[in-house]
Amino acid sequence: MAKKKIMLVFGTRPEAIKMAPLVLEIKKYNDKLIPLVVSTGQHREMLDQVLNIFNIRPDYDLEIMSKSQTLSQIVVKTLQGLESILLREKPDMMLVQGDTSTAFTAGLCAFYNKIPVGHVEAGLRTFDKLRPFPEEVNRRLLSVVADMHFSPTSSSVENLIGEKIPKPSIYCTGNTVIDALLLVAKRKFDIKKSGLKLDANKKIILVTAHRRESFGQPLVEICEGIKKLAKTYFNDIQIVLPAHKNPMVTGVVEKILGGLDNVLVVAPMDYEPFVHLMKASYFILTDSGGVQEEAPSLGKPVLVLREKTERPEAIIAGTVKLIGVNGKKIFSEAEKLLIDRILYKKMQHAVNPYGDGKASARIVSAILFKFGFTAKKIKEYYSK
Ligand code: UD1
Ligand code: UDP
């Protein structure tokens, strides 16, 4: 049987982290599948950091990123750049991941060119078009465009079934982020080598925030809550905040938190030191999707800086709490977790609702099955 060409398109940090294990898995079947990696370059430094860690060299790079880019700019440049590559390479299938503008636009471009689309991390929903913005809508649009839906959990499968997506096209695989996390977390890494000036006597509170719906006042509130926490517990904690490179984030974060002695505002960290910093931290405050998925399997409590989340599983498991973007509430919830040992212990247990490290293997078996390379159907992943 002729080999099948599988094009993987991604452009941002989280997509690269979640697609890297899949690229590595597809490479194992080089007698059946040919991986072709296309980067849109929606991110630059933050993407390249991940490509280096997993030793992935894209076959094509559209280099679309510009400073403070608009969503329409990302879409237009991706559509224009990708179509000629699709016409030249004629892949048998395209894989996209998640909810970014890169993922949605690449899926659309494949659909226009009648190329089957596999959607990795399908079926996450808040059912609120504006939260997260524009990711909720990107996801829904991709579910319309895609032919194979690789859902991370049983509740994401249920969401798709509720939208009348044909059941045989849905596979419950677990999330590839756990594949990536386990690959990196097991490597030995001395946190002292991260270059961070950490005080061994203080607890580390890790913070990330970058969502578009939080730009402006919500991000100011987030920073004010963190500032109060840092000042109130100066002798006990140090806050580490790797700031996203979006100027809408760095401007506010540096203005409010820049001058505080126990707040380290640093550049985006490489994935490996970041994972080990998560392991070393006491708890995490974040609005990131990926961090919400990773931290529970490391046994780290997470307070989510959002009004809604499309990842309810760890909230149900009790390791994650949704606390919103009000500064006073952020301070009081973080304070509770800091001083209440019973509450901390309750949230601290490690759970794996998002995967077992075998999601990429399941996705690749489903692809091999689709193309008739194997008669074996995948054994699906169901979170407990
Ligand atoms: C994008 C995704 C979001 C994802 C996030 C992960 C969309 C609509 N949003 O949002 O879903 O959670 O990535 O981080 O696809 N920049 C740099 N260097 C970089 C990366 C970004 O300078 O390596 C700056 C640029 O000025 C760029 C800006 O950040 O214009 C915004 O980047 P963009 O990808 O549009 O939005 P994100 O907020 O990163
Ligand atoms: N991450 C990283 N360095 C950092 C911050 C985050 O490598 O300084 C990783 C994190 O472990 C997770 C991913 O980036 O796997 C999440 O990306 P981000 O928060 O940008 O996007 P989201 O998941 O919200 O779409």
TrEMBL record:
Name used for this protein in its record: UDP-N-acetylglucosamine 2-epimerase (non-hydrolyzing)
NCBIfam families recorded: wecB (TIGR00236)
Record-linked CDD domains: GTB_UDP-GlcNAc_2-Epimerase
Domain UDP-N-acetylglucosamine 2-epimerase residues, every copy: 35-367
Lineage of producing organism: Bacteria, Bacillati, Saganbacteria
EC number from the UniProt entry: 5.1.3.14
Domain of life (superkingdom): Bacteria
One GO MF term attached to the UniProt entry: UDP-N-acetylglucosamine 2-epimerase activity
A Pfam family this chain is assigned to: Epimerase_2
Family: Belongs to the UDP-N-acetylglucosamine 2-epimerase family.
Gene source species: candidate division WOR-1 bacterium RIFOXYB2_FULL_37_13
Keywords: Isomerase
